[in-house]
Amino acid sequence: MSMKIYNTLTGKKEEFVPLEQGKVKMYVCGPTVYNLIHIGNARPMIVFDTVRRYMEHKGLEVNYVSNFTDVDDKIIKKAVEEGVEASVISERYIGECKKDMAAMNVKPATTHPLATQEIGGMLEMIQTLIDKGHAYAAQDGTVYFRTRSFKEYGKLSHKNLEDLRGGNRSLLVSGEDQKEDALDFVLWKPKKEGEPYWESPWCEGRPGWHIECSVMSKKYLGEEIDIHAGGEDLVFPHHENEIAQSEAANGKTFAKYWMHNAFLNIDNKKMSKSLGNFFTVRDISEKYDLQILRFFMLSAHYRSPLNFSAELMEAAKNGYERIVTCVDNLKYLESKTGEGEMTGDETALLEEAKGFADKFDEAMDDDFNTADAISAIFELVKFANTHAGEQSAKAFLSGLKEEIVLLSDICGLIVDKEEEGLDADVERLIAERQEAKKAKNFARADEIRDELLARGIALKDTREGVKIVRL
Ligand code: AMP
Ligand code: ZN
Q1: pTM for this model (two decimals)
Q2: Atom 5 in ligand 1: which residue has the minimum CA distance?
Q3: CA torsion sign, 185 to 189 to 193 to 195?
Q4: For 266-276, b where at least 16 C-beta lie within 10 A, e where not — what string?
Q5: How many CB atoms lie within 10 A of CB 355?
Q6: Using one digit for the tens of pLDDT, what is the confidence trace for 390-430?
Q7: Ligand 1 atom 17: the closest Cα is on which residue?
Q8: Ligand 2 centre from 113 Cα, in Å?
Q9: Where are the beta strands (DSSP E) in 16-120?
Q10: 142 touches 189 (CB < 8 A)
Q11: What is the pLDDT of residues 283-331, one digit of tens each?
C-alpha cells in the first residue's frame, strides 16, 4: 500500500509521491532557543522524527532540515537580563536542546541551520521580493511584504484576504504605521538600542521571523520541497507567510505537502507558565526515562490534541515497559535454549507474527497513525508472551524478538536495553532459585526472590516457565 499524508494545503489525505523518486526533502520548523525546550516543543520533534524513520525504513532517503531560531525578542530579553550577548543564550540552549533530543532518541537533522548564519541569503531574497514588486522599504528602513501582491495568500490556512483584513485592523500596531496595508508583514526591521544587528541596503537591523525558513529551506533543500512541517499554531501566519515569500520570490510551488501536529495540553488546559502547568523536557526526565515521553507522544495520532497528565504518563510507562519486559524475557529464554531446529508449528507461528508487521505498516501508511501502529506492537507482544517458552527453539525466540525490536525502532523506541542486560550474577541467582524449588527448598527460593526484588527484578512463575519483570 502506498503512504498517505494529510495535507493541510488541500485538507485531504493524499498519496505521498516524492518530487524525486526515492528521495524526500523535508523541512521542520525548529524551536526558538531562549530556554530549555518544553514538552509541547517535543511533540513535533518526536512526531516528525518518526515520520522520517518510517520513510527511511521504506527505503526513502530523507534530507531532513530543521532550524534553530537564534535571533528573536525573547532571546534578546534574556541576554539583557543576564548581561550577556544574545549568542551566549542561543548557543547554551541549542546545546541543551540537542541533549534533550538525544535522550528522546530524536535523530539529529541532516542540517540544523541557524538564522544568524544565513543573513546573506535573507538579504538576497528580500531584495528579489522588492525587485519583483512584492516588498517595499518604508521610510524608517523596515521592509514589508506586500501581502495583496501574492494572489494566493491564505491558501494554506484557508482564509480569505477580506476576512483577514476585517479581523486584523489591530495589526497596525505602533511602529508599523508606515505599512501600505494592515496585512503586510515584516521582512526586515531596524535595530533597537543594544540589539544584535546586521548591515543591509535598507537599515542596520535584523530579519523578521518568517524569512529565515524560506531562505534556509531553499538553501539546503532547493526551491521546491516535498514536506514542510511544524505545530498547528504555525499554519497562520508563519507558514502562510513562508509560502508567500518563497513562491513570490522563486516562482515555484514551495512545498507539496504541509503537515501539522496538534497541540499538547496539560490536564486539558493550555500549557502556560502563569497557570503553573509548564513542564520542560528536562523536568520530565527527572521522573521518567524520556523513552516513556516518546512512547506517550506516539500513543496518539499526531493530528489529535494530546492531553498530558500524571496518570497518562503512568499508563505510558506501563505500556512501554510491557514491550521492554517482553524483549527481556525473549532474551532470557534465548540464553536458556539450545540451537535446535524450529518445529513446524513454530515456523507457522513466526509467519503468523509477520501479520502484525503488516498491520503496523498499514497504520503508518495511513497518515502515520502511530496509535494504531503501537497497538500492532502490543498485539505482537501478547502473541510472543503466549507462544514463547522454555521449550521454544532459539530461532523462534529471536525471530519474535527481532520483529518487536524492529517495529519499536521505527517508532524510535529503544526496547532492547542491551546495556542493562541481565548480569551474570542475576542469571546465576535465577538458576539457583530454580534448583532450590526443584529440591523443595522453598525458604532458599524465597530468599533469592527477595534478593532479586531488592535489585529491581521480579520473578513470575508462568506455565511457560519463569519470567522476569523489571521494576
Ligand atoms: P516555538 O519555539 O514556539 O517556535 O515552537 C517550536 C515548535 O513547537 C513549533 O513547531 C510549535 O508549533 C511547536 N509547539 C509549541 N508549543 C506546542 C504545544 N503545546 N504542543 C505541540 N506543539 C507545540
Ligand atoms: Zn519556520
Answers
A1: 0.89
A2: 31
A3: positive
A4: beeeebeeeee
A5: 13
A6: 999 999 999 999 999 999 999 999 999 764 556 677 777 88
A7: 40
A8: 12
A9: 23-28, 61-66
A10: yes
A11: 999 999 999 999 999 999 999 999 999 999 999 999 999 999 999 999 9
